[in-house]
């Protein structure tokens, strides 16, 4: 092959009369195109290919310059495939994501966009007008109460009320119940009214620790004007009692302050008390198959002491006396169980005749625990029964009925000495024993 013809085969026709770079007469050479110097023919096919690629690239560059209308040193157009809005989206995602992390991990408040939610902010002014009833449920937080107040039109913003609630140390005194408020009140005015006695519309009743179910019925009936027979006729199966209760309400009507609407039935009243019991006791982790036993011991602790620091020690005495053999022969000999058997209050002691009562709840005559709780204990007594103190005590006696001072003993002689102290106090304080 003649090497002199390689240029013709790769670069097109080579006119001998029109040297490379020459143009027909009258054709104008573009100002932007730079003339290439005369070149020697390539020595090899590879060299010819490279020269062709270089020229094609050069021509493409000139075409781009022609299209722009100039040959500036920078290109002010976005590069092909570039998306100028992507960095903006990335930045926005970082801001939103960072804010979310701050809220979840640091509790940092984010500014609200509003849209009518309870987080919209703002507040009404003044005491408001009109009348509206708002119900506060057990366990409601300031935010939950605020949201309900906003929904009822009492406050403008639930979040603003929650902030006022959080800064008022008396806010925790708000009890469950129905409150009679006004429309369009300032958050501070609404909170003040809720803390004012008489703002609740329902009937409030306080159930102290240690009452029998029959005594609780009497208090509820008086406070709510419900016939006492309605309570005794309630089917325990309708109350949601825990399985360990064996369908007995005694021990499972949790002592607390309750507020009931005027039309609340006896069943619903007791059901709420049982629900409160389960809410209070669930965190203690008592097994269902051990619940009745724990509640029975707790009721004895409640009936025999003022709980507090003595509660776990009384629970230990109960456990120690239940052990077979020994001085007690497995008998508890607790006056509180006899009081329950004869349904008589009034003294901390019992007579010889009362201690002969034929009842499974008489722990002077019967070994072991009674069949079930003898009252409705509070959470302190329940905790004591679930975790008794360590000790070898078999006896105890409250030597001062006013202060509640109680002395524990491991032996009968030591206990007899404490009993003499108790009798001396009773003699010096007639009618208090």
Automatic annotation (TrEMBL):
Chief localization: membrane
Chain segments annotated as transmembrane: 85-103
Superkingdom classification of source: Bacteria
Site label Important for catalytic activity, positions: 304
Annotated catalysed reactions: a peptidoglycan chain = a peptidoglycan chain with N-acetyl-1,6-anhydromuramyl-[peptide] at the reducing end + a peptidoglycan chain with N-acetylglucosamine at the non-reducing end
InterPro entries referenced in this protein's UniProt entry, alphabetically: MLTG-like
Keyword Glycosyltransferase assigned: no
Claim: Protein biosynthesis is one of the keywords in the record: no
Biased composition range(s): Basic and acidic residues: 24-38, 50-68
Positions of the UniProt region annotated as Disordered: 1-78
Keywords on record: Cell membrane, Cell wall biogenesis/degradation, Lyase, Membrane, Transmembrane, Transmembrane helix
Membrane topology of this protein: Single-pass membrane protein
Compartment annotation: Cell membrane
Enzyme Commission number(s) of this protein: 4.2.2.29
Family affiliation: Belongs to the transglycosylase MltG family.
Functional note: Functions as a peptidoglycan terminase that cleaves nascent peptidoglycan strands endolytically to terminate their elongation.
Descriptive protein name: Endolytic murein transglycosylase
Protein encoded by which gene: mltG
């Amino acid at each position: 092959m003649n090497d002199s013809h390689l240029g013709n085969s790769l670069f097109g026709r080579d006119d001998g009369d029109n040297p490379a770079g020459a143009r027909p007469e009258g054709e104008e050479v573009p100002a932007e195109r730079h003339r290439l110097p005369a070149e020697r023919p390539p020595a090899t096919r590879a060299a010819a290919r490279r020269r062709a690629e270089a020229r094609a690239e050069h021509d493409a560059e000139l075409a781009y310059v022609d299209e722009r209308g100039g040959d500036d040193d920078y290109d002010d157009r976005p590069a092909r495939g570039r998306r100028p809005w992507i960095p903006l989206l990335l930045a926005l995602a970082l801001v939103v994501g960072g804010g979310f992390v701050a809220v979840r991990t640091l509790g940092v408040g984010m500014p609200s966009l509003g849209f009518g939610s309870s987080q919209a902010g703002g507040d009404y002014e003044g005491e408001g007008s009109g009348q509206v009833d708002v119900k506060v449920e057990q366990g409601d937080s300031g935010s939950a109460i605020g949201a309900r107040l906003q929904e009822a039109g009492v406050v403008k913003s639930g979040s603003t009320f929650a902030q006022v609630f959080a800064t008022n140390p008396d806010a925790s005194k708000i009890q469950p119940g129905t409150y009679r408020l006004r429309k369009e009140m300032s958050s501070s005015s609404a909170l003040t009214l809720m803390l004012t006695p008489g703002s609740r519309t329902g009937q409030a009743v306080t159930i102290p620790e240690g009452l029998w179910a029959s005594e609780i019925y009497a208090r509820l009936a008086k406070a709510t004007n419900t016939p006492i027979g309605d309570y005794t006729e309630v089917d325990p199966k309708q109350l949601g009692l825990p399985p360990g209760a064996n369908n007995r309400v005694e021990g499972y009507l949790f002592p607390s302050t309750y507020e009931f609407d005027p039309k609340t039935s006896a069943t619903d009243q007791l059901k709420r008390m049982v629900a409160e019991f389960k809410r209070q006791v669930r965190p203690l982790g008592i097994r269902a198959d051990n619940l009745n036993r724990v509640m029975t011991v707790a009721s004895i602790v409640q009936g025999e002491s003022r709980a507090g620091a003595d509660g776990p020690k009384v629970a230990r005495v109960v456990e120690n006396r239940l052990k077979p053999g020994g001085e007690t022969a497995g008998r508890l000999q607790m006056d509180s169980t006899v009081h329950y058997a004869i349904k008589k209050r009034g003294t901390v002691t019992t007579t010889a005749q009362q201690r002969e009562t034929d009842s499974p709840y008489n722990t002077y005559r019967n070994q072991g625990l009674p069949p079930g709780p003898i009252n409705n204990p509070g959470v302190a007594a329940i905790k004591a029964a679930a975790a008794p103190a360590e000790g070898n005590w078999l006896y105890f006696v409250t030597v001062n009925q006013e202060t509640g001072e109680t002395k524990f003993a491991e032996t009968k002689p030591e206990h007899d000495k404490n009993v003499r102290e108790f009798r001396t106090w009773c003699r010096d304080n007639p009618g208090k024993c």
